[in-house]
Design goal:
six-stranded parallel β-sheet; alpha/beta; about 45% helix; 13 strands; elongated; Rossmann fold
């Protein structure tokens, strides 16, 4: 890295789908740390959230600072068309051929009915790739980082193929969650970041030679100062209800149904417990929430369980401050920022050993149970109700674990280091033209099935 590159700010396109959303506090904190590290993040999102799902103190400011690719104004459409014309006919033909392959049509001479919709999607991502490429040219971005490996990554891939714009990816969950064509998305990326060691192993096994040369492991993190207590945690006295708090979007993957069944089991055994769940479904309360409300009636829990909906971080801290335990019963959880926040607040945690959670919740820092097992979950929570010393010990150890190993600055520092190295490498090779050394649509690795 040259001395000049190390001192100068790096201009970065920072892409997060449908930003800001109810689980996007991590991204907002990361942009703040990047700015401190002399990285200039310019936030871009595919489109505005479908509903007011963020409901965060910073949500309004974040939305004002975000550029949305859809919808586009007339000048933006003109810029997009200009970018689509820039590569020339031969290069554009190669890109269209790549779009054909990624749609599933491949080299078949005739377009079948089942390929029309996938091809239309690829052409839409190509058009938005032109929009992203135009933004990069107008604003002087040196790089684009995408916090997704789904459609937003496809847009960045097409922007790269159109203009040589370098991009990178962060993987936040299993590859299967992000759709097809992972091999070309990763093979064309300058570098990638994954949030757990488990995901790192899975990606290398699934993608093989399509994995970029640099893949770093950097977990999402929590601001330990923001999530801290004004007074020490007080274990349950037995005089009032044992208060359980859970936080996660209302989605079947979060296992809220299992948690409701566990609470019902505890109540039937004579326990005095109450549960509060923060989070909303993707339909603003008209989706999975209705199923959960049906389960409340089925288990007779209306008087014992409260669904808060999407609430700001301040309310989350209030609930953690008054709770005796935090429980997340996810069927699959890549890591769990909500778990980190509870640990930072010194609240004893019960979570499922699903996905990357065991990398966060070590023995002695929380209790882990099998996913999808209400009886085992109820037993773990009951253990906390009868052992106040264990609650205090788990809370102290949990805060130490989350605040030291999962601080919110770590991911930004890793990203900044990789960006500066990539920018320095690009400057050294600038005499060869943009995009030199990167895969083209005709390279075999691009056609590798994902």
């Amino acid at each position: 890295m040259t001395e000049r590159t190390a001192k100068e700010p790096v201009r970065l396109g920072y892409v997060v789908p449908e930003f800001p959303g109810q689980t996007h506090g991590f991204f907002w904190r990361e942009t703040g740390v990047l700015t401190q590290l002399r990285i200039q993040p310019d936030i871009v999102s595919t489109r505005r959230p479908r509903l007011d799902s963020a409901n965060q103190e910073w949500g309004g400011q974040a939305e004002r600072l975000t550029t949305y690719l859809v919808p586009s104004s007339l000048p933006e459409l003109v810029s997009m068309v200009r970018e689509l014309r820039t590569p020339g006919r031969r290069r554009m033909a190669e890109i269209i051929r790549a779009a054909n392959e990624m749609s599933g049509k491949g080299s078949r001479p005739f377009l079948r009915l089942r390929h029309i919709r996938p091809l239309a999607k690829q052409l839409a991502w190509l058009a938005l790739g032109g929009r992203l490429s135009g933004l990069a040219r107008e604003r002087g971005w040196q790089h684009v980082h995408v916090h997704s490996c789904g459609n937003a990554a496809s847009i960045a891939l097409y922007a790269h193929l159109l203009s040589g714009l370098p991009y990178s990816l962060t993987l936040h969950g299993p590859l299967s969650d992000y759709g097809p064509n992972q091999a070309p998305k990763w093979a064309n990326a300058a570098f990638s970041i994954v949030i757990t060691n488990e995901l790192n192993d899975a990606v290398r096994w699934a993608l093989g030679t399509a994995v970029p040369r640099h893949v770093a492991v950097a977990p999402m993190g929590v601001d330990a100062e923001e999530f801290s207590r004004a007074a020490p945690y007080t274990p349950w006295s037995g005089k009032e209800a044992f208060r359980i708090f859970s936080c996660g979007r209302l989605n079947p993957s979060k296992g809220h149904d299992v948690l409701l069944a566990a609470v019902a089991e505890m109540l039937q055994a004579g326990a005095n417990v109450e549960l509060t769940i923060a989070g909303e479904d993707e339909s603003g309360g008209n989706g999975y929430r209705r199923e959960l409300e049906g389960l409340l009636d089925h288990h007779g829990l209306r008087h014992r369980v409260q669904l808060l909906g999407a609430v700001p971080a301040g309310r989350i801290r209030q609930e953690l401050d008054r709770s005796h335990a935090f429980v997340l019963a996810s069927h699959a959880e890549p890591l769990g920022v909500a778990i980190m926040e509870a640990m930072c607040m010194g609240v004893p945690v019960v979570a499922t050993a699903a996905g990357g959670v065991p990398e966060l919740v070590l023995e002695g820092t929380g209790l882990l149970v099998s996913p999808g097992n209400p009886n085992e979950l109820a037993s773990a929570i009951t253990r906390l109700t009868i052992d106040p010393e264990l609650c205090v010990a788990l809370g102290v150890a949990g805060r130490e674990r989350a605040s030291t190993a999962f601080g919110h600055r770590r991911s930004a520092e890793v990203l900044a280091q990789l960006l500066r190295s990539e920018v320095a490498s690009g400057e050294e090779q600038s005499e060869n033209g943009p995009g030199t050394g990167r895969p083209s649509p005709s390279d075999p690795v691009f056609r590798t099935a994902s």
